[in-house]
Amino acid sequence: MKRILFFALLFLLSCNLQAQDSAYARKIIRTLSSAKMQGRGTSYKGDSIAAQYLAGEMQRLGVLPLQVNYMQHFTYNCYSHEGPISLRVNGTELMPYTQFRIYPSSRYATPNNLEKALHKKQLKDGTWLIGVEKLDTYGPILNTDPANPICIEVLDSLLPKRIKKVVADIPVNYHHGYKTQNVVGYVRGVVDTMIVFTAHYDHCGTMGDGIIFPGAHDNASGVAAVMDLARMATQQRPYYTMVFMLLSGEESGLLGSHYAVENPLIDFKKVKLLCNIDLFCGGDDGIMVFNAKSDNTKPFFDKIKHLNDELHVAREVRPRDNSANSDHYWFSLVCPSIYILTMGKPYGGYHDPYDTCQECGLGHYVDYMSIIKQLAYLE
Questions:
Q1: What is the distance between the alpha carbons of residues 367 and 365, in angstroms, rounded to a whole number?
Q2: Dist. CA 175–CA 80, nearest whole Å
């Protein structure tokens, strides 16, 4: 116990001297949410551009690779949106994203969706145009059957009572066996018991060439926190071995984390705690911890509460049950796993073009990181 505390104090002292600001995190967020990353989705392989950047950053920091070139490759079936995008109804051109969107998720032209549509018209290529009262939150198209027709959501208030002519240029490209990757590395500790930090780096990509989804809050911010922890771990040898997994395919259904569990690169029986970080900007209202009530995670949540009572950094630390709402879920089946996110503003939008670095508030970043750093050195 004394030895553990000694190493913990050494590490925390090192962190306090070298890392108590958000400059490095903001650099990561700014880079990942820039236009050159193409929204870190399947369009123009933005996910791979981001992965190469993160792998290079791990190497620069001195993080060791868990796989060759830090890449754990896997494939899945998906779509991408590349090229000019336009929609004209009865000669009137509509604006992408604000006036029409490609229907997100796996919710295609199902009978239920068509029944609820205020107006609808099927185009010659099978695509359905449906009028809706409010445009849905944007997300990657997940349906893996290219035979199923896609939908274009249009604000019903903009549609004429009689739809006579629709001219749509909607680039939706199907990819069978699309190749993506998790970015994985570690810092060797004094013991081989592991603390694992995860965050998904993928996002929604683009809606054609005109709309890019930057994904600063979701989830460049979580990636930045994990990379910052990696940076700090390389400054002073930690007591526990620290593993860092930056995951792809989260927006398409937690695919990267599922693959990582099914194809393990580490012995999950040796994992003391896995901490997933997703949506880490803002935080005026505190932090929320998912899977806080399980037998193998409640002691960690109790420690978070205790640390916050001592440090007075979060307005509230709210416990939640386990849920398949982020990458911690699959890991929770094989090791103690929690998911931490911030509550409250300031941050940009959610799955929209306004989730930018400029809107990402990091005023609570150092305070909340102080809790996570200490959490990594529990005995």
A1: 6
A2: 8
Confidence of residue 148 (pLDDT cuts 50, 70, 90): confident
Whether 107 contacts 113, CB under 8 Å? yes
pLDDT single digits (tens) 156-212? 999 998 999 999 998 888 899 999 999 999 999 999 999 999 999 999 999 999 899
- State both tokens at 63: 């993080």
Neighbours of 124 (CB within 10 A): 7
pTM (predicted TM-score)? 0.92
Rounded Cα distance between 37 and 214, Å, is 8
For the residues of 110-122, what is the DSSP string, one character each?
-HHHHHH-SEEEE
CA–CA separation, 231 and 223 (whole Å): 12
pLDDT for the residue 108: 53
Cα dist from 114 to 1, 218, 267, whole Å: 63, 30, 47
Query: What's the mean pLDDT when you consider all of the chain?
Result: 90
Amino acid at 286: G
* Whether the Cβ atoms of residue 35 and residue 366 lie closer than 8 Å to each other: no
Residues 334/260, Cβ–Cβ less than 8 Å: no
The DSSP call for residue 292 is: -
